[in-house]
Structure formats: C-alpha cells, structure tokens
C-alpha cells in the first residue's frame, strides 16, 4: 500500500484507519508506542506541533514506514 500524505490531517486519518483495522483502542496504541493517550488523540487530529520521532514510532507499530522521494519519480523517470 502506498498512500501519499500531503497534510498532517491525512496522516491522522490513516493512523486512525489502521488502528481501527487492527482492533486497537487509542489507549492500546498509546501503551504500545510508549506515549500518552493525548499524543495519539493529537496525532489523529493532525496537531501541528507533535514530536516527529513519536509519530514515526506509532507508524512503525502500525506496520508502516516513511519513504521520502521526489514527486513524479526521479530524474531518470523511474
């Protein structure tokens, strides 16, 4: 699954969707990620001042990875 994310709200919706698909409550995800429940709530709502590493840790727990690439492929059209 490749899901382009252009705004923090889109990331929040994706986290919520995957959490629900995996049958996790927000408090469950917070415990697994070693964060407070408030962080998960703020992540899902797209709060702009979140700590990036905590967000990456949550994505990792949900089975996702972040890949940064140029829009439209690279210079060689790949």
Question: Can you offer a commentary on this structure?
Answer:
With 78 residues, this protein is mostly helical. It has a domain at 8-61: lambda repressor-like DNA-binding domains (434 Repressor (Amino-terminal Domain)), CATH 1.10.260. The protein has helices spanning 8-21, 26-33, 37-45, 52-61. The mean pLDDT is 90. GO terms for molecular function: DNA binding.
SSE arrangement:
Elements: H1 8-21, H2 26-33, H3 37-45, H4 52-61
Helix pairs in contact: 1-3, 2-3, 2-4
Core attributes:
single chain; 78 residues; mainly alpha; 434 Repressor (Amino-terminal Domain); 4 helices
CATH topology of the domain at 8-61: 434 Repressor (Amino-terminal Domain)
- Percentage of residues in DSSP E strands: under 5%
Instruction: Give helix and strand order, one letter per element, not per position.
Output: HHHH
**CATH class division of the domain at 8-61:** Mainly Alpha
- Second rung of CATH, namely the architecture of the domain at 8-61: Orthogonal Bundle
């Amino acid at each position: 699954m490749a899901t382009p994310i252009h705004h923090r709200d889109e990331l929040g919706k994706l986290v919520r969707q995957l959490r629900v698909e995996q049958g996790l409550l927000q408090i469950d995800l917070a415990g697994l990620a070693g964060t407070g429940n408030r962080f998960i709530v703020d992540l899902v709502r797209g709060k702009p001042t979140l700590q990036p590493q905590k967000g990456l840790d949550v994505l990792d727990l949900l089975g996702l990875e972040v890949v940064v690439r140029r829009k439209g492929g690279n210079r060689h059209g790949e």
